[in-house]
Design a protein that fits this description.
Layout lengths: L3 H14 L14 H4 L3 E5 L5 E4 L7 H6 L11 H10 L29 H13 L3 H9 L14 H5 L5 E3 L5 E3 L21 H12 L3 E2 L2 E2 L3 H7 L31 E3 L4 E3 L12 E5 L3 E6 L4 E5 L3 E2 L4 H16 L2
Helix pairs in contact: 1-5, 1-6
């Protein structure tokens, strides 16, 4: 799920380094559907959407920082209502038409979690001429030795795959069906990868080592520094209020603490209760998988589960218990 986002951002930043993408040029120059996206202002008396042109163009920087205006239906009532009113598919459908939703606000004016990094993945494809999974294999996951990280299960991966489980009202967990192949129409840069703890640890190590992993340079040190710094100015990460209880509870990490956003990472602006210092990076995946990267102390970690809905109280508590234990040993 959304632990994919940081990898897609890294791929995009490789292309920024090569001059094939720009953080601040209109994203619609490469993806025409972004250029024609309208801002949803509301609904008329007949329940029909009312839209207008955005005040500014969407950029790659907006897409990577969740300030583009694109949203997720499971945490945005207006987006969910638009999908229902228009009969459009949501991102869970894996249909490319799911990307063609309106913006919920003018680019650069708010932080709201959404499908922006799925669009960033489409920009990687347009700039590189490669399907996103092939680009990862050739330029990102392949060079890092992330042999078990792909958009499709190969036979070896599928034989070792963990089932998703749903938390039901009595607190128990029910396994969900597991299929080797899906029917997706595009590689979801915002949430489509399958992978392992060992592989994701390699990505964490690469970021901690300023773009180098086991002697191979994946990103320039200055690129990693930019990815790890506040890219949204005075805006702050907000609580994600659930509109789809089967997929997610309300979600916010370190509620009450100010959090900014880098180029795909949440950034703690103050020290967290676990012992993590200001400047620590983190994010998560929908099935209660979490990671953190602490450049100050040079440590990072991940907790992977396969439990829905997101922000499961027991699962997130265990992640933070693990992180706290790490800091208590320093």
């Amino acid at each position: 799920f959304s632990m994919t986002k940081a990898l897609t951002a890294a791929a995009a930043m490789q292309l920024v380094e090569r001059g094939q993408l720009s953080l601040d040029a209109p994203a619609g120059d490469l993806c025409a559907e972004i250029r024609t996206a309208q801002v949803l202002e509301g609904f008329d008396d007949n329940g029909e959407p009312v839209t207008r042109a955005p005040a500014t163009a969407v950029t790659l920087r907006h897409l990577l920082t969740h300030t583009s205006g694109y949203s997720y239906h499971m945490w945005d009532e207006a987006c969910s209502r638009w999908l229902e009113a228009t009969g459009s598919p949501n991102i869970s459908s894996q249909q490319r038409a799911a990307l063609l939703q309106p913006l919920m606000f003018d680019p650069g004016t708010q932080w709201r979690y959404g499908i922006g990094i799925d669009w960033a993945g489409q920009m990687v494809e347009a700039a590189s001429g490669m399907r996103l999974g092939d680009y990862f294999d050739s330029h990102l996951c392949g060079p890092m030795g992330m042999v078990d990280t792909h958009f499709d299960y190969n036979d070896s991966m599928f034989a070792r795959a963990a089932h998703l489980h749903a938390r039901i009202p009595d607190g128990s967990l029910v396994p969900l069906p597991l299929e080797q192949a899906d029917q997706r129409e595009f590689d979801e840069g915002g949430g489509g990868l399958r992978g392992t703890m060992r592989d994701y640890g390699k990505f964490i190590r690469m970021i901690l080592n300023k773009g180098v992993l086991d002697g191979s340079r994946i990103l320039r040190a200055e690129t990693v520094a930019e990815m790890c710094s506040n890219q949204i100015g005075p805006l702050r990460v907000q609580t994600m209020h659930s509109c789809a209880p089967s997929l997610s509870n309300d979600g916010e990490f370190f509620p009450g603490d100010p959090k900014s956003w880098g180029l795909s990472f949440q950034i703690n602006e103050v020290a967290g209760f676990t012992g993590r210092p200001a400047g620590t990076l983190m994010w998560a995946g929908l099935a209660n998988s979490y990671y953190w990267i602490d450049p100050v102390n040079g440590i990072g970690g991940a907790y992977l589960s396969q439990i829905l809905p997101f922000a499961d109280e027991a699962s997130s508590a265990l992640f933070f218990e693990m992180e706290t234990a790490v800091y208590q040993t320093l």
